[in-house]
Amino acid sequence: MSIVTLKEIMENNEIRTFLEIAEKQLEALGYTEHSFRHLGIVAKAAGDILRDLGFSEREVELARIAAYMHDIGNAVNRVDHAHSGAILAYGILTKLGMDYKEAAEIMLAIGNHDENTGNAVSNISAALILADKSDVHRGRVRNRDFATFDIHDRVNYAVENSKIYVDNQNKVAVLELNVDTEICPVIDYFEIFLTRMTMNRRAASFLGLNFQLIINGNRLV
User: Could you tell me if 47 and 64 are in contact, meaning their C-beta atoms sit under 8 angstroms apart?
Assistant: First the structure.
């Protein structure tokens, strides 16, 4: 067995190929951006969450690896991508020599990151959920014709800035958004992201935290 690092994962040609194919499929289907930008942001955020809560450096690294690979299943199909991605990731990671238990922890986290079927069932999965569901930003909108925006395009495009962080002292996980309400009223955000916010609340609770949503400086949750 070997100590597999995020750097090694990012430089692996097989993983990169799967992620490129996954993004190609999502682009063809008209989904928001899930490229290396998204994966990098989610990987950093997931690791930072566990680091700031005092978890070990190895668990922090595993959270980053899980986050970087979490959408790999989209190379197979968007439907059930969390489960197909979890199995793909486990096979690749063990082939690279990762310890079986570590690979299984990453498999578990990836398999539970989707709001339709997943739950926070481990520290790594909780951090991945918080990081993934918080990446809302206009840079993820592919459609450049504002006249044809659907509600998902409008909500994402209206978000000028987003960040997720934890305050260990006060035991809270905070998602802060800056939203241009002339593009999209705040109520539209809740209309399409209520399930994700519920998932975030449960993920925060797994880590012993309360979840707070702040939009334009106002706490809404």
Answer: yes
